[in-house]
Design brief:
The structure is a homodimer. Chain A is an alpha/beta fold and about 350 residues long. Chain A is built from twelve helices and eleven strands. The longest helix of chain A has 15 residues. The relative contact order of chain A is 0.12. At the A-B interface, helix 1, helix 8, helix 9 and helix 10 of A face helix 1, helix 8, helix 9 and helix 10 of B.
Chain lengths: ~350, ~350
Amino acid sequence: MTRTPQQNAQRHGGAIVDIRSLPQPYLLFLGDVTDPSYAKTAFGLRDWAPERCVAEYRCDGGTVTVGLPTMTVAGARAAGAKAVVIGVANVGGTIPDSWIAPLLDALEAGLDIVSGMHVKLGEIPPLAAASARLGRRLIDVRVPPRSIPIGTGRKRSGKRLLTVGTDCALGKKYTALALTRAFERRGLDVHFRATGQTGILIAGGGIPMDAVISDFEAGAAEMLSPDAAPDHWDVIEGQGSLLHPGYAAVSLGLLHGSQPDVIVGCHAPGRIEMAGTAGYPVPRIEDLLELTLRLGARTNPAIRCAGISLNTAHLADAEAERVIEQEAARLGMPVADPIRGGPAFERLVDACLA
Amino acid sequence: MTRTPQQNAQRHGGAIVDIRSLPQPYLLFLGDVTDPSYAKTAFGLRDWAPERCVAEYRCDGGTVTVGLPTMTVAGARAAGAKAVVIGVANVGGTIPDSWIAPLLDALEAGLDIVSGMHVKLGEIPPLAAASARLGRRLIDVRVPPRSIPIGTGRKRSGKRLLTVGTDCALGKKYTALALTRAFERRGLDVHFRATGQTGILIAGGGIPMDAVISDFEAGAAEMLSPDAAPDHWDVIEGQGSLLHPGYAAVSLGLLHGSQPDVIVGCHAPGRIEMAGTAGYPVPRIEDLLELTLRLGARTNPAIRCAGISLNTAHLADAEAERVIEQEAARLGMPVADPIRGGPAFERLVDACLA
């Protein structure tokens, strides 16, 4: 018997994840990756939900650290961890065979497993068997909600901000989280709306937009930020890039369905090639913004760009400051690195709320 | 146990449908619809695969006909029909309760059921039970293939044409089929690449692009038109519209992954509002083309527009001719109604191959 993916999600999946029901705190699993850019989930949890992170561990050959203490599964269990979170992702969202043994060890040690991969934990026979035998939970957060409607483009009440980017994995989530906290500090009524597995784990809710059937992509985005009070802000985590040859469908459905009033462009100066592509250069931020405003105007003619978030994590302080000032002058709009904060970031926040 | 939709498709679905394995000829089921625009599949099969269509039937209250003889399920079985094809679609792709009884009658009469809806036949308990009891087949063609990769944007060999439209359901499939036949008449090596359920039933293969998980949308389109001989043409059926607030994600993923050398714009003069939207006007064809060329250039910088296919089915002959000539003069490119054919259509074919 065949099932449509959508139907399957509607039957088995679903519901926006409520992080309060998840076993925590976490041990962060870093697999065997050697490139920190694949450990987005682990870094995100460390940075935005450190109170829920006990330690980290990895396979033989893995070299990435998020700076937490390294523990064995038994040591982490003894230190209070209730679940291991798969803290790394790879292209396609699969779980390689080399991760199975350490994940089985975690189950044996009394930990549940939480995953945001495309592949589902229960589909992996040894994990399914061990969890059943041991009474442990396998929790997948990358499952869309049950009933997603087709998008209609109906204008909704409330205010929305969407972060957009020139590539994957360069700061759209961090920027949205930092802006959410800044809005909160200013006393505004604001929600962070998560669209990826890490954001969902941090926020305790959201929709994994890249796991939604394409026909329902914009409808899912409409569902994610429903009608709200006129002065309520939804700050929506962007996904992919409109100019990425693999992921633009996700980005456009999210843009149309989010109908943002404000966009903030995210860019990583110095990055040359788009992630996972056959030699596609990272576009210029101004080209991405112009295209986003044009496409976004289809569902919100009042869309505007408040400014730019630069990921300067790889730059020394003085160089970062120089690049930020240079880009602000060149583009004539607020530019900041939200992680560095400071007056530049406050000017970006001002522009979002202007 | 939850399953990711993608995983589910990978386990249960899949493989590009081979129409030679389907039970045929068909009885076309028209449900209870009263608007012919919802009977795309039935009209498509009648027009492009009439040798596989025995008759039509409908529920009480249904008023649409495709012009075939109306038969009971028993009469159609006696006349040689092997399966009933659900020939109507609705927003969201569901099967309403009112269709269950007539579909059960079809199973009782000895017919299998073929469906291209989002909802799967086997998910409907009375149909599942009756098919099991009677030994009849429930065949869903709207299931993506097993292993879809993430799109990379790698340039592929061979030539590709994609039809694009200012709305849904206005002639993208018919235009692609008519161009395919015209290319065949000129002795070219050409494949029609189906992207929706009706096209798949007509062609005997393809990928239901709107049922693909959004993260894999461009990758599915890359898979659909693989590397080919330098002079081989793939004529790819377009989906949705880049300017539709609900379906643009499908359209953009298909555009990026198809990396077309040539686009043909499809438009229905006189249509005011986009299908299923909250008052969105149908865009101007020139705006759609300009946007398509701009976005398509990301994966094929040599993309060009060969001309326009106008759906003039609702116009008298003289008025249709006038509109076609007027649009050709206004836009300075070949304009034709492929169903009407004639010299205008041959000029459009010339431009595709120029």
